[in-house]
Amino acid sequence: MVDYKKLKSLREQTGISFSLCKKALEETKNNIEESKKLLNTWGAKKASEKSERTTSQGGIFSYVHHNNKVASMVELFCETDFVSNNREFKKLGVELCMQAASIPAKNARDFLEQEYIRDPSKTISALIKEAVLKFGENIKVGRVLRWELGKSESV
User: Record's family (predicted)?
Assistant: First the structure.
């Protein structure tokens, strides 16, 4: 029997569908932390399954730091315009831009390997895998650009 307070909490924490959260809680006997780990495992598997699917939609997101001395842009791809117009997808794009502005990366691959600034227990790659599970579509980071006032090079 699923504890519905825990189900609601897990759903709010992860943003993943109620049905997957319920399934995870059932399999872990209502243990939220174990359910999160299980959802991450499922997300990695789902991302792997969808990794070859074409991502021709998405958006370009930007962020300018409050001091106006650092800015970033991230190109984020998905499969459909339905997902690209989703509020949560747009939020992910802005989060990735804030990450790019906060920690310089040499390229998109380095960017994906960074610890997520809001939760150092996960990488940007893991954050993308969670989004794949949440949206049910392949999601990829394209270009990652960062500018810093007075620096001649951008990444």
Answer: Belongs to the EF-Ts family.
